Amino acid sequence: MTCVIIEDEIPAQKVLLHYINKIPNLTVLKVFNSAMNANDFLKNHKIDILFLDINLPDISGIDYIKTIDNPPAVIMTTAYPDYAVASFELPTITDYLVKPFSFNRFLKSVNKVEKNNHKISTEKTIYINVDKTIHKIQLKDIKYIFSEKNYVTVVTTTTKFSYLESLKNLETKLPSNQFIRSHKSFIINSNYITKISGNQLFMKEVSMPIGRAYKAILMEKLNL
């Protein structure tokens, strides 16, 4: 799983980084000291967990979450228990950590996110609306998805569907452990990758580009 930290206190950043480094399948991609500094990164990258301090200099963590479309799982951090209770009013917030928190408490929060992600990944099908017809597609049959202007095309092992949709919105409906954003215009099913050469990804006879901004996350999710 990938994560981002938004925390303005250096000691708290160090604690989070120390705990994250103890968990083999959890990787921190970026650390920011304010929500505004993190805003562009979060708009362009899909992550699994956001560790978010409630008390930030420019906008509170709770208010910031309300501005994000399709936010990741959020674990709030705060020194004030009353704020933590208020944070549960937002459904995207998975858990909260009251400073100072132990590694055991931190691990419990991460496991909670992982359990929720597993529930999503066990969903076997997705429904898409093409020309006023609802199609049921098996997730295992989707090879890759690409976008052109305002349309996405879902390519399966047997056919393809093009319809009006945003790639970003469709990405939120797919299990992140299987479907990975490899380019601003592509989402790939990692089960169908046959090889990677430079900035090209191959699925047998089909090749597609790997975006510079997405390559590190792609390789991390593939454990490469």
UniProtKB/TrEMBL annotation:
Q: Where is the HTH LytTR-type domain?
A: 126-224
Report the superkingdom from the record: Bacteria
Q: Which residues form the Response regulatory domain?
A: 2-114
Write out the entry's keywords from A to Z. Answer: Phosphoprotein
List-wise, which residues carry 4-aspartylphosphate?
53
Q: Which PANTHER family match?
A: STAGE 0 SPORULATION PROTEIN A HOMOLOG, TRANSCRIPTIONAL REGULATOR-RELATED
Protein name as annotated: LytR/AlgR family response regulator transcription factor
- From which lineage does this chain's organism come? Bacteria, Pseudomonadati, Bacteroidota, Flavobacteriia, Flavobacteriales
